[in-house]
Design a protein that fits this description.
Elements (H helix, E strand, L loop, with lengths): L9 H6 L8 H10 L6 H10 L1 H7 L28 E5 L2 E5 L27 H12 L6 E5 L8 H12 L6 E6 L1 H4 L6 H6 L6 E7 L8 H12 L4 E6 L8 H13 L2 E7 L14 H11 L10 E6 L4 E4 L5 E4 L2 E5 L5 E4 L4
Parallel strand pairs: 2-3, 3-4, 4-5, 5-6, 6-7, 7-8
Antiparallel strand pairs: 1-2, 8-9, 10-11, 11-12
Amino acid sequence: MTATKTLRTPAALAQAGLIAPERVRALEAVAAQYAVAVTPAVAELVAACGEPLARQYLPDEAELSQTPEERADPIGDHAHMPVEGVVHRYPDRVLLKVTHACAVYCRFCFRREMVGPGGEGALNAAQLDAALAYIESRPEIWEVILTGGDPLVLSPRRLAELMGRLGAVDHVKVVRLHTRLPVVDPEAVTEAMVAALKAPGKAVYVALHANHPAELTPAARAACARFVDAGIPMVSQSVLLRGVNDDPAVLGALMRAFVETRIKPYYLHQGDLAPGTSHLRVGIEEGQALMRALRGDYSGLCQPTYVLDIPGGHGKAPIGPAYAEGEDGAWRVEDPNGGRHAHPPKG
């Protein structure tokens, strides 16, 4: 069966043939705790590609198992929230969470306690005014990152209004939007939406979240081209996930797919300690080995920065493998094939 609308319940997933009917009752307990939404485009991907896509988008009984280190706010958003909707963790940039709705709900989401039905909802008019007033009052804020939720679920009218208000803040020079939409609902990326993102005098970037090369379908690539052809550069972010992209060939193919789509690989995130996600997390040592496998075998354009968002709100740290170590005023540098070399060379 082909889905014609977003599937939001285990029963709907079973009717579409994406899960076995006998799993519906158990998965209703998952859906009661964490939001479910699978767009028609994602339903097609799951049906065609199976496990690597299903693990990202379909609810799983394993989500009901929580480990002691997991937490509702794993990266400490609330520790750096001066006003509702604004996270000011770094001096020169802020997150502006205008909505907590998404077109789909990823099973590994680090904000899964905040998004979807029963979550924190969208900012109301007074809250948005207060958030923008905070940004306007702090000249050190150079970049505003629109996130949530997915800011591109807003209508072009609302996006244009928001971009206009940010465009009027002289010290804000860069606006970045984080989204899944070109992958999960590519037809929603319309010319009207792209036009709404323009802000005179501001550099606008779109960061696409995708985790498997199969997500970069022809339709998704065409949606991304609408941004890039309009002069909006794109970067990527991915999450390292067990059974999805924890393989050098798959990860390399994903990075190549980004570059072919004119998207610069930016971040590969270590999985956050969100509740019920331990079955999807990969160890840091495994992640470092994957990054070593990319280095040398894939173009420099294909190299993301492997990062950990330190729990408690302490910010991102690069955790990729090291290739150089100093000793007695000299260095030993490892090449991509594992050879070690003195620098400067002796003799």
